Amino acid sequence: MRLIISPAKKMRTDTDSLPWKSLPCFISQAETLYDKLRSMSYEELKRLWKCNDQIAALNAERLRTIDLHTNLTPAILAYEGIQYRYMAPGVFSREAFDYVQEHLRILSGLYGLLRPFDGVIPYRLEMQAKLNICDVKDLYSYWGGMIAGQLYSETDCIVNLASKEYSLCVSRYQKPGTRFITCVFGEERDGKVVEKGTLCKMARGEMVRYLAEIQAGEPEAMKDFSRLNYTFSPRHSDPSTYVFLLGGTTCPA
Fold it and tell me: Fewest CB within 10 A of the end CB: N or C in the chain?
């Protein structure tokens, strides 16, 4: 079983808390992307990143001064988004770190696929970015089936805790005979399950932490998740979608 999650836009450098263990498996592809970004003008980068001048200046300076092999931070500590705050790797036990290193994978526009202790630098490159490179028009085409291929070489069961922007890199290349289970965290309104962005990110992080704490080996272990007032709903779920409802009790099958 492998858990996939999205990266976060906000990143930090932490070379002291824990050592990184390896370079990302697609480091050569990341270097190609990084060289492309470095060749672009400030205005081109700002359009690509779709951000304000403050964020653009910060990331342009990073491109100018940082390379992909020095002053690296373990990926699990590098991202600072909501999902990562609720995952709370800063208080993981050694057993939890061992668990996520084996089971958790972070999807990335720049790196493709990251293990928690792969060494990374701060960067800005979303998977939806329209970057013309290597005769393709965007990152989905650039990465193609590489990310999914690596994941399915490791497991036949993927638990999707990522946003659609990133999970598409895997779901559209699902291999026959494998499982791809998407977790939905929402509330029922007028007979429909509605998700809210911030609450989903919180729950995804909590789910990773929960599975690491109980050392889960099978996706069925997720059905006992009951944090942040979410409860698994068999009535709304199926083999490829596990639905957790906010503020409810477990529904009968």
Answer: C
